[in-house]
Amino acid sequence: MVMKIDRDSSRFKQIVRGKIRENLRKYVTHGEMIGRKGKDLVSIPLPQLDVPHFRYGQNGRGGVGQGEGEPGQPIAAGDDEGDGQGKAGGDPGQHVLEVDISLEELAAILGDELELPRIEPKGKANITQDKVRYTSVRRVGPESLRHFRRTYVEALRRQVSEGTYRPADPKIIPIKEDRRYRSWESVPEPVANAVILYMMDVSGSMTDEQKEIVRTESFWIDTWLRSQYDGIERRYIIHDAAAKEVDEQTFYHTRESGGTRISAAYKVCADLLKNHYDPAEWNVYCFQFSDGDNWGEDNKTSLALLREQILPKCNLFCYGQVESPYGSGEFLRVLEEAFGDEHEVLVTSEIESKEAIYDSIKTFLGKGK
User: DSSP 3-state assignment of 43?
Assistant: First the structure.
């Protein structure tokens, strides 16, 4: 039997999800919940949401609130009330309710609103299997799993305690109560593995504003891909004229002043794929963010690495060009001229501002790769 309070709670959750859907573009644009992210939950502020409350009837009686006055007239309003400057005002403000929502629910809402197709992992990656692990010993079981050493020890211990053990004629004869068998449990082992490799230009032309755009978009990319795979690994590569792998904190907070060679990042990426991520076992996603600057003579090397060593191993390679007042924006044109529509794994997006993040995510993930 469903209690009324359960129906009310379910209805309230539906209202919350509806509000999140209405405001999803704003959340994606501003990234205001990233700092609120817990291990499995995200705290989202929902303005203009009516919190359930009691409503009292008239009952035809007088009492508190009855008497002279007009509806809405402040109680004991005096000449001291003003426009909100200085002393406390008497008008209600906008109420904001924070609700916790799981990353799984958030991914589902994101997928519905952006109409993202479910990803079909390649190779064995769509299989989930149980791995058997022998973790303990028990008194019953099939003879094929008899634990001979433990059975021998139990029989020896019993005969010693009974006084039937003869050191001069050491015969150990197990009986039914001495037998021990290996016991197992099935442990789910995810075969659906995916790795996300993020690459970003951290030269002087990439400002903090551009990095915030990258950070916000990466959060939503992570949220969606985590909902599609049982296991996700993330690797981070930064570069100017040289490249190196770093942790997440360093990735988003490093800024250099040198030149730019995109091929340096591609070499590190290619080495990681070669040494750690066999494409037969892993679903590989690469996301590169740059303002489009690259040393002119480096374009040929970069394209060769991309074509020969990276794209053949990727489910998806996404290049996001973040508009910067200091960047040339040329590399997007270089990619389009080199590949055009011939390589379906390669997807490009021009991210002019935070408002463009929403459409960029849909462009990147809309193919269901």
Answer: strand
Look at residue 76 in the predicted model and tell me its pLDDT. Answer: 54
- Torsions phi, psi of 141, nearest 5? 160, 175
Tokens 């990727």 belong to 314
Per-residue pLDDT band for 188 (boundaries 50, 70, 90) equals: low
What gap in Å lies between CA 60 and CA 4, rounded to an integer?
A: 28
pLDDT band at 204 (very low <50, low <70, confident <90, very high): confident
Class of the domain covering 191-365: alpha beta
Task: Please name which of 104, 77, 112 lies closest in space to residue 91, comparing C-alpha atoms.
Answer: 77
How many residues are present in the chain? 369
Q: What ranges do the domains of the chain cover?
A: 10-50+96-115, 128-188, 191-365
Q: What is the mean pLDDT of the chain?
A: 77
Contact 159, 172 (CB under 8 A): yes
β-strands 243-246, 181-190 pairing: unpaired
**CA distances for 274 relative to 162, 267, 279, 309, angstroms:** 63, 10, 9, 9
Greater model confidence, 186 or 352: 352
The Cα angle at residue 292 between residues 290 and 294, in degrees rounded to 5? 105
For the whole model, what pTM was predicted?
0.63
Longest dimension (CA), the chain: 111
pLDDT at 303 over 80: yes
